[in-house]
Structure formats: structure tokens, C-alpha cells
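Task: sequence in, structure out. Protein: Putative DNA primase/helicase.
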Amino acid sequence: IDVLGPATAKWDYLDAQGQLIAVVYRYDPPGRKKEFRPWDAKRRKMAPPEPRPLYNQPGIQDAAQVVLVEGEKCAQALIDAGVCATTAMHGANAPVDKTDWSPLKGKTVLIWPDRDKPGWEYAVQAAQAILSAGAKTCHILYPPEEAADGWDAADAVMEGFDVAAFLAHGPRVQVHDIADPGEPVIGADESVWGTEDALALAFTRRYHRDWRYVAAWGRWLVWDGRRWRNEETLAATDLIRGVCRHADLQADNPKLAAKLATSGTVGGVERQARADRRHAATTAEWDADPWLLNTPGGVVDLRTGRMRAHDRADRMTKITTATPGGDCPTWRQFIAEVTGGDAALQAYLQRMAGYALTGSTQEHALFFLYGTGANGKSVFVNTLATILGDYAANAPMDTFMETRTDRHPTDMAGLRGARFVAAIETEQGRRWAESKVKSLTGGDKISARFMRQDFFEFWPQFKLFVAGNHKPAIRNIDEAMKRRLHLIPFTITVPPERRDKHLQHKLLAERDGILAWALEGCLAWQRLGRLDPPPQVVAATEEYFEAEDALGRWLDERCVREANAKSLTAELFSDWKQWAEAAGEFVGSQRRFSDLLITRGVEKWRNAAGIRGFRGVGLKHPTQPAYTPYADD
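Result:
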């Protein structure tokens, strides 16, 4: 002990009556890792008591719910914050079988693991020991996905994290007692002791309510109390390993026991469990209701704005990062500034955001937020995307731009269930992939797959939000593109001295109010029955199409539109080709040229020799007569 220097912290372990059982000392020797040394009060020596006690037993005694964390520092941080917490001596390094878990009998236990692999593995093992000791229920909390590796309860308290909300509503998985004597692992319906099928049935009996497997995705989903979460930590395998480990201990045949302990058995049991009808699920059943929005506080019915409790039966895998409620004065001021105080444009942006909350694509719209920079468009998009959480996705700009190669189908797989898809920063000289835009906004079913998985199909629910400083070119101007594209001008440039580097952070502090603002917009959109873009959006969109309409400019500059005018297709195309090449526009084929004229209502015509042409259009300066008139024509 002398070489460790003086203790830097100490924690007293008391029994339920307040008598000292042990003391744990922390040492931080220079140039070495921290060390913990226990002192046994009964034996009066530096050694852990046998069995090892739990921390804070006087507090545990009268509590209905106890939070188990890793280490005394974490436990004391929660206790000081008013939470009944405990830890086993040495945290995740504590031997589970040498700890006395009996003080947790009859308690509701939440395990808050550190955000790392050892923390989760310890939590699963400790959960079984806690249930075997008679705990009423035991859940393991999922640390926030955005937290750093190793993040723990002490970090949460120090950062000002909302501990109360996390304990009440945070995502979690319930653990069941494998060795429940009222429901033995090997029952009457499992005739062959120790088979993979029998063990899979044992797992399913305990976890069928909370675990689903989607074969097309190659993924387990687990109910965490608020949504069905993609399980990426192999927790299902860990729980199955617990089933196999328990069967191993029960086996009286050493050869069978050795077999049950192998990774091959665990893997075989997991594959058997996947196929059980109580676990197996299809892709179509998830996030299917476009009018439900999952939030941390409950499920919002977007038709009415009312909220209800989370329910497994809703089959929701997505969740927002906010619960609608309160106001958002900073956000409202921001919207007023970027719109120049235009009330009609502000109301339209609110309806647009509200429409994005739904899974409906009935407007068939692509929202293009255009401005030359420092005008708030990216802040607008990024704020909404952050608040929408799992419902939002980022897409590379190439997804919507014309490219030489097709995008990989895995790019689209990540958009399943998304409602808000953002792409930021258009590049100069790029062109819209018009057929892709029409398909993605038209509600057509999408075929996609995850890496190394089979293809699956889904109905798109997402709305496209593209923000950029450059306007992509449009090659084919038609009614379908005109109906879809909404160009929203962001024309107010914020001067350098008024730019707030912390604006995004300030806005997200109002995320609940901003989501309530968007919900108001959703209800307003439904009442109105349409998005109803204001005059400045309509004018900016029309101006955009006019500037991109090369064929329209050619018709205005080089042609006459008269009922009795007639021209051969070859002559029109020759003039178009000459004009387009001089103007730097795409020429295309003669067939494409003819199709574009037809889409503009120009009537097809043939002369007496059967040569194709068009009626109602002629060249202002033809190089030769377009046709030879006949007396009977």
C-alpha cells in the first residue's frame, strides 16, 4: 500500500442497519493506472469480505427501484442526485458469483452499464444473478448512442444529463430469469434434453415478447420500452449463451455439458430461434402507419395531434429526439429573420415541416432550399433533421444528380422508414437525375438491400430536402418536374457581425417546442388540404424552370407558333442542334427532340410523302421551304 501513496478517495460499505462492513480505497499512483483496494472491517485486513457486499444497503432497504452501476464513484454521483443506486465491489470487474445480491430481493432493478463491451457483458451476467436472488424485475439500460466510449453514470451527472428522464423513459431491454423454477428450461414439450431446438424454445419462451428477427435484413430487433431497436451489440447471442450456460450447469453428463458450452451450440441455438414464428418478422410490418410519430414521451397521432403510450404492437423502429411541447421563441425569431418577416413564407415553411413529420408522400414534392450562403437554409434543414432523429437521413447529393454509374442499392436501404431526407450543398454544373427524382417523389415502391443481404421492397415515406448555393440544371422540362419541385428562396444574407456560431445549439435547446411548432404545421397542412406555396416560392420556381428551359428559349427565339405552320422534324431538329451547340446546351437525339415537342402540345403531322413533321410550329428563318404546298392540302 505504501508504494501507492495516499488514498485519493474512499467509500464506506454499510449493512442495512448502518454498520460498517468494508471500505474501498482508491489510489492514483504517479505514472500508473488507478487502483482500488478493499478493507474488510470484520477481519481488519486489506481484503474483500466474503461474500462481497453491495454498496448503499441502508438506501436499498426502503427503495422500490434500485439502479446498479459500475463503481462507487458512479453510485455516489447518482445518490447525491437523489437516485437510489448501488454497485458491486470492483464494478464490472467484480466476480458475479462472489457478490451477495440478496439486498435486491423484491426490488425493481435497472442496470446502467458503462458504454463499452465489458460493461454490457457484465450487465447481462449480473442481471441473471440479480433475478436469481429474487428481484422483481431487471432491465438493462442502453447508454445513448451519441455518448463517448466508456461513458458512465458519473459522466452523465457531471455533464448535466437528464438522469431522471433517462431512468424513466430511456431505452432498455428486460432480462428474464433463465432458472425460473416455475418455468424450467427443459419442459415437457422439449423431449430431447440439451438439443439446440430445446434450448431455442427455452430462449423463445422467455423473450418472445421483446425480440424479433427480420431475415431480409439479417437483424434482430429488441423492444426497449419505446421502440423496436436494431440490436447491434449481439445481445441476443449473449442471452442465448446464458441459456446454454445454465443448461451446461444442469447437465449430469460431462460430454453433453462440454457440448453445451461451445460457441457452435450457441450459434446453432440462435439460428433455430430466428425461425421461430414468435420471433420471425417481415420487412413490411415495421413503421407501416404513416400517421404515427414516435417520440420519447409517447406516440403522436398526426391526424389529431394527441399522444398516447408506446406500444409494441405499433411496430415502430424509429423515434425522434424530442417530445412536442412548449414554445420556441429563438426558432420563431430565426424563421422570421431568414424569411425577411414574410408571414406567408413562414406559414408555408411550417406546413412543409409538418408534412415532413408524416409518412405520406401525397404531395410528390422535392423541396429545394436555394441561396448563395449565410442565409440560414442549412441551419433550418440540420435542425429539423436532428430533432426528427431516426426519422431523418442524410443522402449524398449524387443520389439525386445525374451520374455515369448507378448508386449501390444499399444507399436506398438506409432510407426505409425515413421521413426527412436531406442533401446539403449542390455543385455547380451538375444536373438533376430527373427520372430518379420523379421515382423517389412519386411514391413508387423501392427495391433495396443491406450489405450482403437479400433484396427487399418498401414504400417510400421520405420527403426530399436539398439545400444548395447552385441550381442544378434540368434537361427535360415537363409537367411532372414542375409539379414536384418547390424552389424556396433564402435571399436574406446575414452580415458577418451578426452571425451566431452557437445558433444551432441554442435552437436545439428548444427542440420540444420546435417539434410542437412542426406538429401545428402538420395539422394546418391537413386542414388546408395542400402545401399552398406562397407567391415568392411559385415565382422563384417558375423563374428557375424558365432559365433551365433550353427548348422553350429555342422555340421563342427561332420559331413561330401559328395554327397553319408546318415543318418537317428533320428541319426543326437541324436548327435546334445548331442553336443548342452554340448555346452550350445538351442536343440529344432527334427522337428525344420529337418527344419533347409532343409533351409541349405540338401536334404531329406527315406531309404527302409520308415524311414526319409537326403542325403549329415553323422556323422564323427557314433555310428552305419547310414543305411544298399542294392544292389539295
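The CA atoms of residues 447 and 457 lie 4 Å apart.
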